Amino acid sequence: MSAGEWLAFAGIWFLATVPLGPNAFNCILVTALYGVRAMAWPIIGLLLASVIFQTLVFLGIVTLLSAAAGLFTLVKLMGCAYLAWLGIKLWRADARPFAEQDELKPAPLALIRRACLISLSNPKAILSYAALFTQFIDPQMPVLAQAMILTPTALAVLFVVYAGYALAGAPVRRLVTDIRRMTIMNRVSGGFFIFSATAIATAEMRR
User: What's the whole-model pTM score?
Assistant: First the structure.
């Protein structure tokens, strides 16, 4: 891969990652609820999901899933169901002061797992990975050698983008100073995930 191709990949991947979605919103929410010290855990979960997606692309499994339309649709709807469940859980969550939120902070593994599942539940993500990565994979060259270039680049870009979103949760934490504002934040967060699930499922059913 030439330097020009590498820069093109990094630039396109950055533009594809920046738009606000469930992953970014989760990073903001974790920092807002549990502070900057907790921001690393959802990012690790996202990076883990990215490695899984990339592995599926490099192994060609995405092509097989796309060919099995019924199975792929089922996977998509299961992902939507998870996002909707997470949204309802956030919507109904009790509003507590941040001091209590800190005491009830989930274990790092739980935050990693939730972020990973949110990312894996997005049915469009795997198609995005396949569409972009295949443009830069030369079938005449060893896949492993190309993966050793593309994967670290993609992970570095993801880290930068989502670290930025996670840091954006810090001022939110300072603004949410009472129970009423905490309730509003829970409802906005839950509504975002429910909306995302509904929009994805509706788009799938119209296909």
Answer: 0.74
